[in-house]
């Protein structure tokens, strides 16, 4: 059903103000707030160019928070999915509605950082409330950006405390999320220092960047002993960041989920189901996690088989349930399953895959229905 009231309010903003016998500055702020809060982000950006009063009102932190809350409560029908299209000449991003037709919502062709990455392309760590966190960290570099493409603004983060120039060899993972307790966005950097080739035996160092202060600081809380598994994707669920981590016990390695609560800034861990390889070890088992509603999903990949697990009750390790196991069958027009990497879930419960033949696909957890989405050089980000 169409929301005619919202359409009428948006239409009024497009009428020349002289026709309404108003100037932009004379409209009461209460009325403007009531109208602006119902508008989509594209219209909000247009309104910032009308006058200084409107721009100031829209960029006020209170309005931003209220607009975000309103949007979250009223747009759950069709959340947005972010896709990155990459080539050697250009890098751009597209938002699609997570609906049956997968319509394009908006395209960002003016990527402001193209050519600035030492690695060739930026690593997109995560997205939260319209902000995209980008990292240039593949080879130990430490260039980070927070980017809001809708308003064409970005923040370059300062140099962190631990770099390749201040310490010996290290491995670092990063995460990004929103702390509702302090109404602040935070970047968490999880650094595993290597000593004499030993990794995963000592507690890692952790530092947090706060957008409100614009600074990095070391975190005093002691994380569990273990090493996050490189640049594997993290999952932001229920106010906490989650990484797959690896711990060495005796001569064996064990995978587990490292959890960092952004509000309390404390650590905990969640056990994973047993994922042992034929030698009784987990070092060579490829695992990654994804948000699954308000809980977690686990992708376990072997050469010839993929298993997907879902934690039905968040933080309850006993609730891990295997929901599907796929052998190395041909899924997509001659492409074997082993050439397809699961990325994340749609709201409908379908799984997105990134395949090596310039084709992306998603399928339901019952692999009978498969749709082909043609995107060249694409990385899927949810």
From TrEMBL:
<dbReference type="InterPro" id="IPR017451">
    <property type="entry name" value="F-box-assoc_interact_dom"/>
</dbReference>
<dbReference type="InterPro" id="IPR006527">
    <property type="entry name" value="F-box-assoc_dom_typ1"/>
</dbReference>
<dbReference type="InterPro" id="IPR036047">
    <property type="entry name" value="F-box-like_dom_sf"/>
</dbReference>
<feature type="domain" description="F-box">
    <location>
        <begin position="21"/>
        <end position="67"/>
    </location>
</feature>
<dbReference type="InterPro" id="IPR001810">
    <property type="entry name" value="F-box_dom"/>
</dbReference>
<dbReference type="Pfam" id="PF00646">
    <property type="entry name" value="F-box"/>
</dbReference>
<protein>
    <recommendedName>
        <fullName>F-box domain-containing protein</fullName>
    </recommendedName>
</protein>
<dbReference type="Pfam" id="PF07734">
    <property type="entry name" value="FBA_1"/>
</dbReference>
<dbReference type="InterPro" id="IPR050796">
    <property type="entry name" value="SCF_F-box_component"/>
</dbReference>
């Amino acid at each position: 059903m169409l929301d005619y009231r919202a359409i009428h309010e948006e239409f009024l903003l497009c009428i020349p103000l002289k026709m309404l016998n108003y100037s932009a500055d004379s409209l009461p702020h209460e009325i403007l707030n009531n109208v602006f809060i119902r508008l989509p982000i594209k219209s909000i950006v247009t309104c910032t160019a009308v006058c200084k009063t409107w721009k100031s009102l829209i960029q006020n932190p209170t309005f931003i928070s209220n607009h975000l809350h309103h949007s979250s409560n009223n747009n759950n029908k069709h959340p947005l999915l972010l896709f990155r299209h990459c080539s050697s000449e250009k890098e751009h991003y597209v938002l699609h509605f997570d609906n049956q037709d997968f319509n394009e919502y908006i395209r960002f062709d003016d990527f402001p950082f193209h050519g600035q990455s030492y690695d060739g392309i930026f690593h997109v760590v995560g997205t939260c409330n319209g902000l995209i966190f980008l990292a240039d960290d593949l080879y130990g570099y430490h260039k980070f950006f927070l980017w809001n493409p809708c308003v064409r603004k970005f923040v370059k983060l300062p140099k962190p405390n631990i770099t390749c120039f201040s310490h010996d060899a290290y491995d670092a993972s990063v995460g990004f999320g929103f702390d509702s307790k302090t109404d602040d966005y935070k970047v968490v950097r999880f650094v595993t220092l290597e000593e004499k080739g030993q990794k995963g035996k000592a507690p890692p160092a952790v530092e947090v960047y706060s957008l409100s202060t614009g600074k990095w600081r070391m975190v005093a809380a002691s994380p569990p002993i273990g090493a996050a598994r490189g640049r594997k994707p993290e999952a932001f669920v229920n106010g906490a960041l989650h990484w797959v981590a690896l711990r060495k016990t005796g001569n064996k390695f064990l995978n587990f989920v490292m959890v960092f609560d952004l509000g309390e800034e404390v650590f905990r861990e969640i056990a994973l189901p047993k994922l042992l390889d034929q030698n009784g070890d987990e070092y060579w088992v490829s695992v990654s996690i994804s948000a699954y509603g308000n809980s977690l999903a686990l992708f376990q990949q072997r050469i010839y088989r993929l298993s997907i697990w879902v934690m039905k009750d968040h933080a309850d390790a006993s609730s891990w349930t295997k929901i599907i196991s796929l052998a190395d069958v041909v899924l997509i027009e001659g492409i074997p399953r082993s050439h397809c990497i699961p990325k994340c879930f749609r709201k409908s419960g379908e799984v997105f895959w990134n395949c090596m033949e310039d084709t992306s696909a998603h399928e339901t957890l019952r692999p009978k229905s498969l749709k082909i989405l043609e995107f060249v050089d694409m990385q899927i980000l949810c």
